Amino acid sequence: MRDAFSRRHAQHRAAVPSDKLKEPAAKAGRRTLIPIIAGTSLLLTTAGIGVAALNSDSIPAPVSLTATADAYVQTTSATQRHGWSSRLVAKMNESTSFIRYSVPAVADGYDRKATLVLTRLTTSNPAKIAVSKAPGSWTEAVTYSTAPKPGTPFVTVADDGKSAQLRIDVSEGITEAGELNLAVTQPVGAGGTIFGSREAGTMQTKLEISYVPEGTTGPVPSTPTSAPTSAPTTVQPTQSPTATPTTTKPTTTPTTASPTPTATASPTTTSPTSTPPTTGLAPSWNPANSSRLTFQDEFNASAVDTTKWERGWFKEGISDGVNSDNLQCYDTRQVSEAGGFLNLSLAQQQATCRGGTKQYVSGLVNTRKTFNQRYGSFEARVCLPDGNGDGRVDGFPAWWTNGPSSVPWPDHGEIDVLEGIGGGTKASLHYVDPVYHGGTYSSTPLAGCHNFGSQWTSSGVTFYYDGKPMWSHAFAGSLPQFLIFNYAVRQHSGEAITPGTAVRVDWVRVWA
After folding, report:
1. Using an 8 Å Cβ cutoff, are 496 and 392 in contact?
2. Which pLDDT score, from 0 to 100, does residue 15 have?
3. Cα 311 off chain centre by
4. pLDDT of residue 328
């Protein structure tokens, strides 16, 4: 699966010499794209894409291309900076995604038929999707202020909000030079669908190229296909409860004993059932680091690995929210793994937990039974929800580590690598002796996909956002901690409650 150092700028270009195009064929009435040597057709491959050669009795085989570059720009908010650019090519919510392809050359006598295939990751309301030609000058660094404006659509299709794929005929957009620059826009409505990425395996957005004799119609309908089998649960949002609950910090399994920790200088770990590699990837803030990789999940499977993760707060099924002000229960059914991501989805559905009825259910995973570590580097790539497209984080999502339940909170210590609070993103620490509860917000909200990490040593914790140091502080916690990802909601200023959204984790890695 993809990681922070993967194929960001891969180019997929046809290796066809320009002087061979439109060359007269050896046989009457035929044109060839690739010369025939010793009676054998040549096969061209470039960046993993095979382009079958023409011979005197056939036309080229279809070609599937991935995007050479893409960028997401929220056109309704100047604060959003292409938050999904490295993963998603389309998050349709009155917004525009730019996609660029280099299309293989075509022999004289044939037409190229190009079909943009968007694979759905989440369901949504029905909406209209428009495709127009985009200027060729944009880059992946486009922002709200520098993004080109979409032109007049040359094709508009209806998205039903639930079909597994949306297939759009974009042949009209191919230039004579073989470049396809597209602006994909939802001009009206609030579909909110997230389509697949260029780095997500079978879920990636792709371009299908077929060749047909000039003047004929290719099989590239602009229609949805069958419904997805593993999309997060989606329901329509309703008005949030108005009563403000009492807020307290998390409680874990009740206990009366508080054991005295024994400090050591070296990391203490309990290994997961599936042992990860011990060499290779390093923290983004220290790529030359040779530390031992002690835990890893790239979320490439079709189901969550329950030898690593418990899907709930101290139990599976329906479990309590971590805090008393949570408006949701955790439900194992809201936890899924698909498209190269762990998905913790929020749905508006009644459930009973903490002695009362909650109006929402969402997902949480933890490693309390399988993996705990004291000291080391902890990093995950997390995609935070922004359901209304305002550039701020929805709800109260978190990526954090916590001490053993046999010790009461906050005696065991808590490291909040990431919390979405009030629409922003914050790193926090909680411990005693001396008592400390504090943290620091990032300079701007980090909605979308970002790397969030921490370096924990005997002298304290340093937090890194997208590989850069964000905040450091002393930390008195001395017990091994387990990993937690969760998506909570509460009645809190700036925290939008948007059913149908999800916290998505690309990967998580821990080093000793």
Report:
1. yes
2. 26
3. 20
4. 98
Spell out the domain ranges in the chain: 18-213, 277-511
Q: Are 400 and 481 in contact (CB under 8 A)?
A: no
**52 with 192: CB under 8 angstroms?**
no
Please give the pLDDT value at position 188: 55
pLDDT at 160: 84
Where do we find the tokens 């690309």? 506
Beta strand 356-362 with 328-331 is parallel
* pLDDT on residue 315: 95
The answer to whether the CB of 304 falls within 8 A of the CB of 311 is: yes
Q: Which residues of the chain have pLDDT under 70?
A: 1-60, 69, 72-94, 140-141, 143-144, 187-193, 197-203, 215-280
Nearest to 406 by CA among 342, 480, 348, 353: 480
How would you classify the pairing of strands 347-353 and 318-319? Answer: unpaired
* Bridge partners, residue 46, by sequence: 49
Nearest Cα to Cα of residue 498 among 374, 398, 397: 397
Q: What distance in Å separates the CA atoms of residue 396 and residue 496, rounded to the nearest whole number?
A: 9
Distances 351 to 105, 459, 484 between C-alpha atoms, Å: 57, 43, 22
State the pTM of this model: 0.51
Domain 277-511 has CATH 3.40.640.10: no
What's the number of CA atoms in the CB half-sphere (13 Å) around residue 416? Answer: 23
